[in-house]
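Reopening this ticket.

The earlier resolution said the output was attached, but the attachment link was broken on my side. Pasting everything inline this time so it's all in one place.
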Amino acid sequence: MVRVKICGLTRLGDALHAAACGADALGFVTWPGSKRAIAVADLARLRRELPPFVQTVAVTVNATPAELVDLWTKTGVSAVQLHGDETPAAYRGLPMPVIKAFRAPPLAADLDAWEAMGFLADGAAAGHYGGSGVVADTATVEALAATGRLILAGGLTPETVADAVRRTRPYAVDVASGTEAAPGIKDPDKVRAFIAHAKAAVE
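Inline output:
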């Protein structure tokens, strides 16, 4: 069964609802340039209110390794997601699990060099580091799918996720804008439907 990450969360109620609906992971954007940004102190408080065994991911953009360790230590998140222009050589040996996002097809050597638990395929939009609602490039999806660790993102909605799962067979799917009422504010019905449709797509 495909895993589901609900991303771009900023409110405890939305996070608890996503977890109750069966989300496997909850994503929180800590990059200040995002319209879904959450402060590190707020994320730390929110995470402590979540039920056990719910995975949490802090989404970052071009943070230094030292900043990532500080973020991980302060918030207690399960993993960090690198959603910028990071290169593998600079991020070796991090103490926490890492997800690396790509908006264009990576070189095979780059994939081999990354110490990552998963590779996220996202849509490319000028001036955006994710959450744009743009569908991921096919070549990017195919390159990451070959690793067996594809996390499919980019333009997914409750209406499109089942077909996307059947076509690409990802390890997981990730959604932000496709489950929102407004940036950073989730629509409960969309969250519920997205998770249900994603998990029912492949038995």
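Reporter confirms the inline version is readable. The first strand starts at residue 3 and ends at 6. The mean pLDDT is 94.
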